[in-house]
């Protein structure tokens, strides 16, 4: 039910003010006219301090993530859609069906209401497309300089309804196949191209996308998937190293098989970055027993978000848990964790 | 990707590797120093050592600009921020190098110091424009390649009359460093040197600026072959083949493998720009090499006003190298990264002790990040996906 306010928010020229987080009528109006209007969710519209939910039978999965990306709008997405995709993907990597999201906003005094409205609408569109509902939230306002425009935290809840699934980072075994769902580094390069001190022109869009549909097809085809993870900060390099350490194994990949867009390779050459350490927001790494690799690859390639999927290597025994790569020239090198900060505030 | 893929072609690489194997003589050892950090990085990143026969040894030289800057100069940069309150603009890698007592610019920034990472010298000029009420200093480091861009920044600042801008100049010269290496007791046969040097994989980008001429002296006087080499993997392999052939023939010549970018005379416009703005320093202390005469640049009298050292009356800081750190010996080729007892224990890219572990061009960082499986103690290091035997 919309509450009548004598003067609607001025979405073209208005700004976030301290009163919008103070608990009074101004806050209720902001929530109603921006978040309520965007999300249009009956649970949210009840106006309670919590969401009362019924979950289907199965194991419940929960995750949380904060979003501080700069710039807020980048080619292929914005902080709103990213805050949905990132959390939906973290839930989905367990094989769960993501169902509900919460959204916490920290807003900086002076943020244009038009920007906030656009972010909320982008979040709502992304949530609808991913089939999840934003059912509860929180809004705080800090003084100018207290944060940078808007920071968002989303929490996701999902359910694993298929009892056969057992997908976790510690389950990779020597001999398993390593697959990726598509080209790497697109998100990082798209965001970097917009940075004030870098600004270069590239046709690359962020790959930001919800992967739960792809995952549903994958687990239906191969319920025996051992591990899945989305290679966000730190890129493929970090994800493979994490999985290798968790599982107590090594990884061996081939540079020639790692899918990269030519424009991403070009930008990375120019900037001196290793594309394997550049973040992604719409890709996943999957590990499965070798006998299922072909079936999994087929399932991935049949989905619009997995058309460029590839088998990039295999899990090996290695006491040091090294991730090694055969280079294009046939030499070998380690693919290591990223050291230091390469791309601050990339998600 | 044009101009890159053709220099990374796997079939051509294997062909060159076979040609090297065919060319080396069983009784000869080929000790080749790659001067530049760019080569060190390319060798590690592409795993080139796996393609070379055992008799070809690559020795990593001192050509990583971040690595050779002594601790004292970093202390001076830190003093600019802490004591003079300037906005310090620096290339990213310098932020993580520990100064005396282990303090890095990254920590100074966390304390509240205004340290900004820039990708280009002109970004630093833009910062000075945006903050007319603050002193803005560009922390200039690097060899002959990065000096012209620094000169460009000063030219631009002068045109804009940006009096709040200045440069902390640490530009160094490649030929002086090579000569210092060749004259060092580590290398000289007379002193029973421990570093055998049979030839140089010569600088790529530096040579685009200074040309091939300056290396003739080393070839003639020290009888060391020099092959000026590009930074792509096929460039390096071809250069190794050219050096092996020179050594086999008893020749000591300057050859240009990187002919697509390097001429004999170099970039004379850039040389003129630099010559018009800088003078040689009588001496400059390098990490690893120690004081090297006439090996670095400072602003000349006409441009003295842009010199941060003079503007802020910065005293020379001696600096203390971190205890136990072998960066110096590694930069001279006397030790390999794994010979340092801090390597991989107290000193890693996440928490570097010495400068060689910071830059991706540093020997320790390149070796740790890409090559440390070669030390794997468990004999599993030949496991790579469907790895076919290399030639």
UniProtKB/TrEMBL annotation, chain A:
Query: Can you tell me which family this protein belongs to?
Result: Belongs to the HypE family.
Q: Which NCBIfam families match?
A: hypE
Provide the organism lineage as a comma list.
Answer: Bacteria, Pseudomonadati, Pseudomonadota, Alphaproteobacteria, Rhodospirillales
Domain annotation PurM-like C-terminal: ranges: 173-324
Limits of the PurM-like N-terminal domain: 47-160
**Name this protein carries in UniProt:** Hydrogenase expression/formation protein HypE
Q: Which InterPro entries does the entry link to?
A: HypE, PurM-like_C_dom, PurM-like_C_sf, PurM-like_N, PurM-like_N_sf
Per the record, a Pfam family? AIRS
Q: Do you know which Gene3D superfamilies this protein is assigned to? A: PurM-like C-terminal domain, PurM-like, N-terminal domain
- Provide the species name: Roseospira visakhapatnamensis
Would you kindly state one Gene Ontology biological process term found in this protein's UniProt entry?
A: protein maturation
Automatic annotation (TrEMBL), chain B:
Keyword Hydrolase part of the UniProt annotation: no
Q: Which family does it belong to?
A: Belongs to the HypD family.
In its UniProt record, a GO molecular function of this protein is: carbon monoxide binding
A GO BP term here is: protein maturation
| Keyword Metal-binding annotated | yes
Which Gene3D superfamilies is this protein grouped with? 6.10.20.100, HypD, alpha/beta domain 2
A Pfam short name: HypD
Q: What is this protein called?
A: Hydrogenase maturation factor
Q: Which organism is it from?
A: Roseospira visakhapatnamensis
- Alphabetical keyword list: Iron, Metal-binding
């Amino acid at each position: 039910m919309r509450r009548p306010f004598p003067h609607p928010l001025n979405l073209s020229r208005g700004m976030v003010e301290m009163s919008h987080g103070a608990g009074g009528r101004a806050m209720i109006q902001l929530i109603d006219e921006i978040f309520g209007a965007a999300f249009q969710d009956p649970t949210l519209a009840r106006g309670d301090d919590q969401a009362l939910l019924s979950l289907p039978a199965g194991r419940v999965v929960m995750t949380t993530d904060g979003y501080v990306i700069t710039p807020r709008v980048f080619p292929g997405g914005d902080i709103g859609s990213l805050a949905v995709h990132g959390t939906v993907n973290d839930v989905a990597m367990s094989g769960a069906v993501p169902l509900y999201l919460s959204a916490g906003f920290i807003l900086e005094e002076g943020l244009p209401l038009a920007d906030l409205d656009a972010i909320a609408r982008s979040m709502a569109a992304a949530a609808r497309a991913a089939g999840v509902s934003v059912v509860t939230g929180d809004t705080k306002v800090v003084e100018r300089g207290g944060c940078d425009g808007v920071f968002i935290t989303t929490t996701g809840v999902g359910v694993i309804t298929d009892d056969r699934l057992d997908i976790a980072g510690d389950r990779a075994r020597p001999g398993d196949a390593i697959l990726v769902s598509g080209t790497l580094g697109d998100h990082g390069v798209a965001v970097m191209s917009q940075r004030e001190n870098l600004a270069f022109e590239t046709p690359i869009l962020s790959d930001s996308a919800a992967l739960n549909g792809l995952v549903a097809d994958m687990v239906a085809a191969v319920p025996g998937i051992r591990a899945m993870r989305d290679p966000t900060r730190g890129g493929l390099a970090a994800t493979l190293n994490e999985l290798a350490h968790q599982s107590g194994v090594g990884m061996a990949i081939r540079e020639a098989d790692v899918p990269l867009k030519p424009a991403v390779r070009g930008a990375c050459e120019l900037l001196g970055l290793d594309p394997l350490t550049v973040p992604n927001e719409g890709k996943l790494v999957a590990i499965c027993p070798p006998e299922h690799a072909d079936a999994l690859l087929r399932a991935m390639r049949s989905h619009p978000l997995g058309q460029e999927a590839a088998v990039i290597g295999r899990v090996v025994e290695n006491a040091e848990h090294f991730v090694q790569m055969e280079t294009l020239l046939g030499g070998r090198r380690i693919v290591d964790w990223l050291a230091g900060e390469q791309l601050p505030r990339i998600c | 990707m044009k101009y890159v893929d053709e220099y990374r072609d796997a079939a051509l690489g294997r062909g060159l590797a076979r040609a090297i194997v065919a060319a080396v003589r069983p009784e000869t050892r080929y000790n080749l120093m790659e001067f530049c950090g760019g080569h060190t990085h390319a060798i590690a990143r592409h795993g080139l050592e796996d393609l070379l026969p055992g008799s070809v040894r690559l020795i990593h030289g001192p050509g990583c600009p971040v690595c050779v800057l002594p601790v004292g100069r970093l202390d001076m940069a830190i003093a600019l921020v802490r004591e003079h309150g300037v906005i310090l603009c620096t290339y990213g890698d310098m932020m993580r190098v520990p100064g005396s007592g282990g303090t890095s610019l990254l920590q100074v920034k966390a304390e509240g110091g205004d340290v900004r990472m820039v990708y280009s010298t002109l970004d630093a000029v833009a910062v000075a424009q945006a903050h007319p009420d603050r002193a803005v200093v560009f922390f200039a480091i690097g060899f002959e390649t990065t000096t012209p861009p620094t000169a460009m920044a000063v030219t631009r600042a002068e045109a804009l009359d940006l009096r709040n801008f200045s440069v902390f100049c640490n530009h160094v010269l490649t030929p002086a460093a090579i000569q210092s290496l060749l004259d060092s007791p580590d290398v000289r046969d007379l002193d029973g040197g421990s570093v055998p040097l049979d030839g140089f994989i010569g600088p790529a980008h530096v040579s685009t600026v200074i040309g091939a001429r300056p290396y003739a002296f080393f070839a003639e006087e020290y009888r060391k072959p020099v092959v000026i080499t590009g930074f792509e993997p096929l460039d390096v392999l071809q250069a190794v083949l050219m050096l092996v052939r020179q050594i086999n023939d008893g020749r000591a010549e300057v050859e240009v493998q990187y002919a697509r970018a390097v001429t004999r005379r170099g970039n004379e416009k850039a040389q003129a720009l630099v010559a018009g703005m800088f003078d040689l320093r009588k001496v400059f202390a390098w990490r690893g090499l120690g004081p090297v005469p006439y090996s670095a640049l400072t602003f000349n009298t006409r441009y003295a006003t842009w010199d941060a050292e003079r503007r802020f009356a910065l005293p020379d800081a001696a600096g203390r190298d971190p205890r136990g750190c072998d960066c110096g010996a590694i930069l001279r080729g006397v030790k390999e990264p794994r010979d340092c007892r801090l390597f991989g224990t107290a000193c890693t890219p996440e928490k570097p002790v010495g400068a060689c572990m910071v830059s991706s061009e540093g020997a320790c960082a390149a070796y740790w990040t890409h090559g440390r499986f070669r030390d794997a103690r468990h004999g599993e290091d030949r496991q790579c996906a469907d790895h076919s035997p290399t030639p």
